[in-house]
Specification:
The complex is a heterodimer of chains A (about 625) and B (about 110).
Chain A lengths: L16 H25 L3 H16 L3 E7 L5 E8 L5 H4 L2 E3 L5 H8 L3 E3 L2 H7 L4 H4 L6 E9 L2 E10 L7 H51 L5 H12 L6 E8 L2 E8 L3 H13 L9 H8 L3 E3 L4 H7 L3 H9 L4 E9 L2 E10 L11 H35 L10 E8 L13 E8 L4 E9 L4 H19 L4 H16 L7 E11 L2 E9 L4 E5 L2 E5 L17 E5 L4 E5 L1 H4 L2 E2 L2 E2 L1 H10 L6 H15 L8 E8 L1
Antiparallel strand pairs in A: 1-2, 1-6, 2-3, 4-5, 5-6, 7-8, 7-11, 9-10, 10-11, 12-23, 13-14, 14-15, 15-16, 16-19, 17-18, 17-20, 20-23, 21-22
Helix pairs in contact in A: 1-2, 1-7, 2-7, 7-8, 7-13, 9-12, 13-14, 14-15
Chain B lengths: L3 H4 E7 L4 E9 L4 H13 L4 E5 L3 E4 L1 H17 L2 E5 L4 H8 L7 E3 L6
Parallel strand pairs in B: 2-3, 2-4, 3-5, 5-6
Antiparallel strand pairs in B: 1-2
Helix pairs in contact in B: 2-3
Classes of the chains: A alpha+beta (about 625), B alpha/beta (about 110).
Chain lengths: ~625, ~110
Amino acid sequence: MGDAPVRTPRPRRRAGAAETAEALARSRAAGFQQLTEQLSRALTPADIGRLTATTAAAFIGADGCAAYARRDGEDVLEALHVSGFPGDLPRRFARVSLHRGRPMSDAVLSGEPVWLEDAGQWHARYPEMAPYGVSEGHEATACLPLRVEDRDLGAVVFSFYRPRPFDHDEREFLLAVAALCAQALDRAHLYAAEHEARAAAERERDRMAFLARASRLMEAPLSVEERLRQFADLAVPAIADWSAVHLVRGSRVEKVAVAHPDPAKLELVEELERRYPRTADEHDSAVDVARSGVPVVLPEVPDELLTAAAVDATHLELIRGLGMRSVIVVPLVVRGRSLGALTLVHAESGERFGVEDLTFVGQLAATAAVALDNAALYEQQRLVARTLQSALLPGELPTVPGVSCAGRYRPPSPDLTEVFVGGDLYDVHEDPERGRWALTVADVCGKGPEAAALTALVRHTIAAEVRHGLGPAAVLQRLNAAMRRQQGDTRARFATVAHGALTVDPDGVTITLVNGGHPPGLVLRGDRVAWVDVPGTLVGVYPDIDLTETEVRLAPGDLLLLYTDGVTEARGRDGFFGPERLADLVASFAGASADEVVDGVLAAVSDFQDGRLRDDVALLAVTAQ
Amino acid sequence: MTDSGALLRVDRTSHPDRTELALHGELDNDTLPIAQDQVAAAEADDPPCLVLDLTRLEYVDSCGVRLVLLAQHGAGEAGRRLAVRLGHGRTRRMFDVLGITGRLEVLDADEAP
């Protein structure tokens, strides 16, 4: 700050007293104006202190000055600025404890100035402090409290090489200068408080924005691990220099993410872990917090802690290399259970975590914990769905002598449906007593648990009725009755079923086929395709259903393909897959095995929808050998 | 989640002898509940005959069949006639394959029930 020097009016000798007094009053008025201007431009307590100890001191003709600030309610004064005092006095009196019986303390504690006009008064009134007060030829001292209303802001000490009679006018003058400094100091405090409040509000706003970003990330369609990795990345350097996430996995606690903006630092962590793998009994705050659910704040990481944790000198060097200064570890708690821990570390930023940060970091951890919990529930649901789905399909098709069978099932793409249990099924059952094999492809309309329950009913009813020796039409009649019983009054869930009884003879295979409202099957003979169009009513709704049994003969090499409408109703950019495209496709598989045909059809249907199936697909192909 | 509201529209026309619901857009698992609500609302007026017009749908899968079967069930319970317009395209073929065209009162485009 380029402050203009304030002219220093010296009290003159008695000659021309009235004239001199007038000149003095004028120059003092000008000096006040300048000091006021300079003080009004100063923003911080340090600036005010400096101006008080330099400009104001020069203005009043002091040879030494020290300005002190008192923090709210503390019994300590801290020097803002000291000038004109010899030797190590400034350092020695940088911090002064309030102590009655010392001039500045008395001024501060009583709120009344202490005037010492010469060395004699010093020795008489403050013998203990006199050696400092009058060192290096200082004589007079004025200790003035800095107060604004009831706010106790500190004190200012003006010291003079000559004895100085502090008469009434002189006292008024010095007190007026001190009051000016006190007001400026008060304003600077208010400004600092406001600045701090604004900074705190901005910090709070930034934290809220960060929480919002973290929440959005937690909803992103990513795996749990990837989400937590990105979560850790998001935290640095926004709110910490290092971040790590640990998860409780059974009896173990595993680190799933660690982040630092500098890749070299991350390599250091890898090296550390490679060279000094953690042992089970070792103390680790992230692991402890993940297990206990109790957060830990270490505002300072003392070097002794690192020394104690280090196995040897190299280890210590590596740990020190991380530069950890301050650490906060909070558990990832949801529904009273700790799922892991979030660790944030301040290192090279030099910032500190305190207990006051627990709320924010705790909120952050809660965001991650809820997302983790949801992901776990979702995984669980998928597991139930997968388990249920596998119960609806045969693990492996039975071996039918003289026939190759191949079945495939593909659920819709996970991104197009919610947790899915399909309604399509294929199966091959043996009727050993009659030497027959039953083929089934069925599609229960709808999806979800109700559809799954009906699908299970379809599968098990058919298996049971086949073993009872019923023919294909009778099996579907029984199934129709069973579905109607199961559904009660709301009979809108139906199934379409293609079902056949297969017998093998030396010249080939005969299949007696019925069709309960199902898309027609296809027979491939050489490269010619024929539809097996058998009329029939869907199953599970009407009390009576129309079914016609038709015989399909397969010579060696011939193939019968049954499928669900997930094939023909598949929609792609070119419209519907449709029966014609299917017939052409199957014709192109002349000479192929049953496995090749079902794989080929599945691939074509998938490609047709750009790899994303909207509906599930079941396929069953049989070839006579 | 798709905004299924935009994918299916149901227009309702009341005649002295019947209420017609004409479905536009896509009728699938996502939009079935909307169609069901509309059918239920029409049924609540207790018309002598309810006509479901599926000819203007751009897409319909087995959920369209469920809608018709539910309406048929409701009509049977209430002693009401139910008729459907299926046109001559994919929708009609689907009902044919399912073997239920013969079990429904099927109307041609402008044919009155």
